[in-house]
Write a structure and sequence with these properties.
Elements (H helix, E strand, L loop, with lengths): L2 H9 L13 E6 L5 E6 L9 H14 L8 E5 L3 H13 L2 E7 L4 H9 L3 E5 L8 H15 L10 H5 L2 H11 L5 E5 L4 H12 L5 E7 L36 E5 L1 H15 L5 H14 L7 E6 L13 H6 L5 H12 L17
Parallel strand pairs: 2-9, 3-4, 4-5, 6-7, 6-9, 7-8
Antiparallel strand pairs: 1-2
Helix pairs in contact: 2-3, 7-8, 9-10, 9-12
The structure holds pyridoxal-5'-phosphate (PLP).
Pyridoxal-5'-phosphate binds next to helix 3 and helix 8.
């Protein structure tokens, strides 16, 4: 065996789940005092989202605990990204997977699950947001009737454990502590799982959780929102994976600010991020300038913008919902302009106009 052969072989993965993790960091902005806003690009995982990390963890734990037998079935309610992760792991490990979904999910996530052979069960959406309560009831009912394994991502601790490697990647790549971390919160797994491991490893990271205006996880009145994956609608009981003790600041971002930020980032960098990442980046861009010099602020980008070409990046879809706001686009562009002097970002060109 020659050296060339050994090197080539080590770069080749033989199953898709080996592609999970080791996602890159991208510097979106830097202040004159060398504080940096870094994006952890979790869309670089297979399935285009961080949630494949926890899907794998929940399935492996269920196998260890004897809850999943060879050839078994899995059922889980999902806005799409958990479903895509479970689809990938099910294919690799030989399980049949049923995803409980509703019309609030992005169409591309549903299409992608169909492409991977997932059995989709649709729950009627009441038009006011995701049917999170009804989706869970359906999963419980199917699991009780058929014996399918229901991971129950809101209550399953392996959801949060799935992000331990993410925390280690951050510490390795940054070669030191992370001062701030910002992430959108749904089940709580991504942010709380990452923060808990960072702190266990000794990093005194301050955490900022973000949910849509209208979501009830951090309290406040329930209302309609179009960000998908993060938040929880009125009537939903928040599960223990949202560990409020691990979230130092709890903030809400409306759909206009979330989607405008995603769109402006796309036009200024060429990077397409999802709507909930837009919300987290919105908070981070406003916060960065206020931080002590040489701070490191990391935003967890949950998924890719390619999943939202029919919604967040579609002018007609936004206009129908009164979410296309040129004033918000202008003010976000001004905010990003403030960092130009100290970063590689190009000035506000014609592409960024709206
Ligand atoms: C796009 C998107 N953003 C944010 C979240 C929230 O992540 P978590 O459930 O880990 O809190 C999800 C969860 O599905 C998601 O799909």
């Amino acid at each position: 065996m020659n050296m060339h052969h050994v090197f080539t072989h080590s770069r080749i993965k033989t199953c898709c789940s080996e592609l999970i993790g080791d996602t890159p960091l991208y510097e979106l902005a830097r202040t004159g005092t060398d504080s940096r806003l870094l994006l952890k690009l979790e869309q670089c995982n297979p399935t285009g989202s961080c949630k494949v990390r926890m899907a794998r963890e929940m399935v492996l734990a269920a196998e260890r605990d004897g809850l999943l037998k060879p050839g078994g079935e899995i059922v889980e309610p999902t806005s799409g990204n958990t479903g895509l992760g479970l689809a990938l792991v099910s294919i690799e490990r030989g399980y049949k997977f049923t995803a409980i979904v509703d019309g609030h999910a992005s169409r591309d996530k549903l299409r992608a699950m169909e492409a991977m052979g997932v059995n989709l069960v649709f729950i009627e959406s009441d038009g006011n947001g995701p049917s999170t309560v009804k989706r869970r009831q359906a999963a419980k009912e199917i699991s009780e009737r058929t014996g399918a394994f229901w991971p129950d991502q809101h209550y399953n601790p392996n959801n949060n454990y799935g992000y331990r490697a993410l925390a280690r990647e951050l510490l390795t790549d940054l070669g030191g502590d992370i001062d701030y971390i910002v992430g959108a919160v749904g089940t709580g797994g991504t942010l709380c799982g990452t923060v808990s491991e960072l702190r266990r490893l000794g990093s005194p990271t301050k955490s900022i959780g973000v949910e849509p205006v209208g979501s009830i996880i951090f309290g406040g009145p329930a209302g309609k929102y179009w960000q998908t994956g993060s938040g929880a609608p009125g009537g939903f009981t928040v599960g223990p994976n949202v560990d409020l003790g691990l979230i130092d600041e709890k903030l809400k971002v409306n759909d206009v600010d979330a989607f405008t930020t995603a769109r402006v980032v796309a036009r200024r960098t060429g990077l397409l991020v999802g709507g909930t990442a837009g919300a987290a980046i919105h908070i981070a861009l406003k916060r960065l300038v206020m931080l002590e010099p040489e701070s490191t602020l990391v935003v967890l980008v949950c998924d890719t913008g390619e999943k939202y070409l029919d919604s967040v990046y579609n002018d007609d879809w936004l206009e129908e919902r009164s979410l296309l706001d040129p004033t918000a686009h202008r003010s976000l562009n001004r905010l990003m302009d403030a960092y130009i002097a100290s970063t590689h970002l190009p000035p506000n060109g014609p592409q960024a106009a709206r």
